[in-house]
Every structure is written in C-alpha cells, then in structure tokens.
Amino acid sequence: MRLFRRNPDPMGPLDYSRRLWLRAFVAVTLFFLYAPIIGLMAFSFNDSRRNVVWRGFTTDYYVKLWNNDSLMMAFANSLTIAVMTTIVSTILGALTAYVLWRYRFPGKAVYEGGMALPIVIPEICMGVAMMVFFARIGWPAGLPWPINLGSITIAHIAFAFPFAAIVIRARLESFNRELSECARDLGASEYRVFRDIVVPHMRPGLIAGALLAFTLSLDDFVITFFTAGPDTVTFPVKIYSMVRFSVTPEVNAASTVLILVTLVVTTIALWIQNRNNMIGKSAH
Amino acid sequence: MENWKNSARAFWASMLPPTFWLVAFFIIPLSIIWLYSFSSKTGIIETTLDWNLTHYARALEPVYLGIFWKSIWMAAATTAICLVVAFPVAIAIVFAKPTMRMWLLLLVILPFWTNLLIRTYALIAVLRTNGFINNGLDWLVTHADWLLSFVGLGNNMLIGPYQPMALLYNNTAVIFGLVYVHLPFMVLPLYAALDRLDRTYLEASLDLGAGHFRTFFLIVVPLALPGIASGVIITFIPAMGSYLTPDLLGGTDSYMIANVIASQFKQANNWPFGAALSFLLMYATFFALALRAVLMRKEGRGDRR
User: How far is B148 from chain A (nearest CA, A)?
Assistant: First the structure.
C-alpha cells in the first residue's frame, strides 16, 4: 500500500503528511465518515430480512422497490419536482448573478444579503414558514398530478436558486466585460448581447448551477416534509416514514438508489467545474 | 460595474423575476410567521394579530429555556469534537502533495452530497441494539471467551455473555450523529485558514528549538484563529438548528429547539408559539453570522502582506 510505504527521502520537519500517526488519524476519520454509508449500501444486497448478518448476495430488494408502487410514485414525484426546480432555479439564478455582477444600484448590499438569506436560515424555519404560507393563502389541495407538486416545487425553487446564483456568479467573474461593450458598440441590442455573448460564457456555470439545484431539490427532506401533503410524498419523505417504521433492506435499497443518483449528478458537476478551471487557467 | 440607470430596462428585466420569487415565496412566508409570533390563538386554527409578547415570554419559561440551553450545549459539544477531529485532518490535507490533497478534500466533501436523512439512517444501523458496533463487540467477547476456554476460564467465567449497550435514542447518539454530519463543515474552513499560513513561521519556530506541540499552540493556533472561529461558527449554526438528527437518533429527552418548533406546528398545533420559537432560533443564527462577519473583517485587516 502506498500509504505506508517507506519514502527514501529523509523526512523534513514540516512533512506532517508523512507522519504515521497523522495518516492513521486521517484513515480512521475517513473510515468513520464512509463505513456507515458503505455498510448501508452493502446490506441492501444482503439476503436476510433482519439486516444484521451477511447471508449472501441478492438483488431481491431492488426488484421489490421496483414493484412498490407508492415508493416508485414518490420517486417519480421527486424527479418531477427536481426537474422543474432545476429549470426555474437556473433561470432565476442566472438573472440574479447577472444583476449582481453587472450593475451598481442603491441598496445592493441589502439585496445581496436578502439573496443569501435562504441559504443561511435554519431549514426548519423555512419549512414551517412555507407550511404556514401555503395554508394561509389557501393553496388548493387535491389537484391532479403533477400540478399538485406545485407548492413543493415553489418552496424548492426559493431555496435552490440562490445557490445556483452563487455558482453562476463565480463563473461570470472570469468574463471579459470588453466583449459585451464591443458587441454593443457594433450595434447589438441588450438582449442580443445577453443571449449571444454573456450566456455562452455562463454556460458551464449554468450547468453546474443546474446540477446543484437538482441535487438540492432531490435531497431535501426538512422543507419538503413541512410542505408535502398526504398525496404529494417525495422520495426522501417516503424513506423517512420507512425509517421511522423499521430498519429493513428495502430502505437500504431505496437509499442506495438515491445516493447513486446524487453521486452521479455531483460527479458530473465537479467534472465540469474542474474542466472549466483547467481551461480558464490555460487560457490566461 | 455600470450604473443601473445606463440600461434601466435590461436591469429591471433581469432583476424583477428573481426578486419577485424571493419576496413572494420567501420574505412573505417569513413575514407571515413573524406576524404569527405576535398573535393570540383564539380557536383551533384561528388567530388574531394583537401584537402581544406572550409567546416570547413563554419561550423564557424554564422548560423551553432548558431546551434552548440543551440545543446550545449539544451544538457546542458537537463543535468541540469536530474541532478536535478536524484539526489533524486539515493539517494532513494542507501538508499533503497537491494530487493527494485534491483527493483528500474530495473525500471529505463527498459525504456532504449524500442525503442527510440517509446518513442519519446509516448511523441507526451502526448504533442500534443489533447494530454493527454491538454485534462486533458481541463477536469479540464470544471469541475471547472461546479462547479463554483453552486455559479453563471459558463458559463466561471471566468475561460475561455480552450485554448489548443502549447506544441509540440518547443524547450521546445525537452528538455522535451531529459530529458525523457536520465534520466537513469544520474541515473546510480550517483547511482554508491553514493553507494561507506562512510556513516560514513554522520553520523558524522549529529551527529555534520549539517542539511540534509548542509550535502548534504558539504559532499555528494564533495565526489560524480567525479560520478556527469561522469553522466553529459555521459548524455551530446548523448543528444548533438540526431537526433530523435528534428526531431519528435521540430519545424522549433529546429534543432540540427545531424539534420543539416542528411539534408546535404539527402535533401541538400552536402556530404562534412555534413562530416565536422559530424567530428566536433565527435571531440566534443571525447573531452568530454577524459575529463571524466581524471576525472575518478583522482577519482581512490583519492580513496585509
């Protein structure tokens, strides 16, 4: 193993990363972080209902998931909400980022602070606020699918778009303002400049922001829990009710599916961001 | 940056949609519960706004003060444990080779991207009576007993049949869960602070004969203090407001403030009181954030190089 191989160079005083105790400490910490999740995923393939001892490999519980209508419905709800949230959050996030990046206006600091509020306030406060809000305005219940997911989607957009705005704004920092001035001098309209010059530069940020909004929406439990009605159960809310009930391999299987979806989306997002940083660096 | 008046139409066109969303679906909901916190409950769901402070006064009753105190205490314990665990990890990352550093950072951040609910559920499987820890210890005890039987001390004469420990549904489980969930919050700011550190100071200290511990406490800690403070606050805020971890891992006496808020809105159906508690939690959060902003500004001034 590379981790413990002897390095031929003498150890310098600041070579902390080569000290065995520190390596062992990091290894134990990472074990602490990962062992429960990996154990959970492994036991979703365990051929035993009691979920305690390993009894052999099976994919039965995934088949059961597939045949569990209420769970699949919850999954479909979650994906629908996440897709709608992603589309709206990316647009709103892009506009926010553009305004904050391009303009100077009175009260800008307050505006920026307001946009950061959904990120910083405790989830529980936002959850109960959303619950009371939809109860007060008399949001109709029992609408046909997928319109009945509207309230959850609205709440998700409200907390997801400020995150998207941050990611997109970071991307805009590398934009050369002279380009848009040039385009305007050459007679392009405001809208044209935005569409043909700014948005193409924003694109990697847009993708990263969209993927972030997607995972935030898909993963959210607390805010959804307070906005969801009996017929608008999402995947995490469904998992929660299963967890409250008992620890079973089905829950493990459902969790594994959610982990894998998030992991894939996040990997793509990180990969895109990383690639952009590389391109950005080599361009300068 | 240009003045908004230069292209007022484009400014309004791009500013209005997000502003509308923020105001309509965030500021207004919060304002509604803010108003609720000053209202009186007149029926099962009816309330009238009469600007009274009884709900805030009720929040100061010993029961609720106790829960506030408990939330602060649990969050503080979580933060302290996170700090002790995260510091060596941050040091290891900072002094690692660049490629290794990237991987370690990724490994620390990755659990962030796993659903909070699922991570908490994973801990249930670890801690419960039939969980990994109890079963692992049971296995160890059984096998130790089997080994002892070779020297005639078997059959539980020396070490007993293993009694599973009650690891779940108590405060320790909640703190364990909070540490598990919030550790990355602490590692990242510490990493950022240590990364900015001028290493020549450390070399100088070591050259001049100070040991590693002395260098750590007299050089590293003071220089990284703003980063440490930032990490402490960033970990403390979400820990204090956690809902899911105490809900799933805690027992009946592990209620934290978020659980009380939730129960006021769901089971107890006392929205005005729940609203008052939410706002107290929010004020506490804002206070912590303001503190962090002040500390960061201080660092910005001291960082002139």
Answer: 25
